Amino acid sequence: MMLERSFVLTLPGRLADLEPERLLQAPPFRRVERTGDLLKGELVAENLLFGEVALPFASRLEGSRLLSLPLEPPYAELFGEAEEGEALTLRLTLRLHFPPGSKWGGRAFTTLAERILDRALERALARYSG
Fold first, then answer.
1. How much is the pLDDT for 35?
2. CATH architecture, domain defined by 3-128
3. Is 129 exposed, middle or buried (0-12, 13-18, 19+ CB in 10 A)?
4. Peptide bond just before 28 cis, omega within 30 deg
5. Measured between alpha carbons, how far is 5 from 14 in angstroms, rounded to an integer?
6. How far is CA 34 from CA 41, 46, 57, 125, in A?
7. CA Rg, the chain, in Å?
8. What distance in Å separates the CA atoms of residue 21 and residue 1, rounded to the nearest whole number?
9. What does the pLDDT look like over 4-28, one tens digit per residue?
10. Which of 54, 56, 68 is nearest to 116 (CA)?
11. What is the pLDDT of residues 78-122, one digit of tens each?
12. Angle of CA points 53, 92, 13, to nearest 5°
């Protein structure tokens, strides 16, 4: 099973000054570290039914692009690109991979996971708006 959401962030500054490990420190991201061109961390969401759900991710920086690296499910992919203009525009995609589930249970989990993901992204993106 896979869920995907894309979003755009517009930030002041230049690509050369961008520090993705600092940008991705607050929820829903945790333990984000950069070693050279490798960026690793976790996507975390809280839910009353499941408690804390943490999915690891790994990405590689190549110039203005962020490329996701596959891991064993369950995991998250974070990828996209940056464009410089009057501001720095980041176009990012977050894709979640889960092991296959059973028939109706899998569908119910998919719906719940979508809601958890949407809520976590909504809270995170609210910090950058306004």
1. 95
2. 2-Layer Sandwich (3.30)
3. exposed
4. yes
5. 25
6. 9, 25, 12, 21
7. 15
8. 28
9. 888 888 888 888 888 888 888 777 8
10. 54
11. 999 999 988 889 898 988 887 776 555 556 666 767 776 777 777
12. 115
Residue 16, pLDDT score: 86
Is 60 exceeded by the pLDDT of residue 130? no
As given in the structure block, the two tokens for residue 109 are: 């989990």
Residue with tokens 């809280």: 46
| CA separation for the pair 33, 119 (Å, rounded) | 24
For the purposes of burial, counting CB atoms within 10 Å of the CB of 120, is it exposed (0-12), middle (13-18) or buried (19 or more)? buried
Rounded to 5 degrees, what angle do the CA atoms 52, 36, 125 make?
40
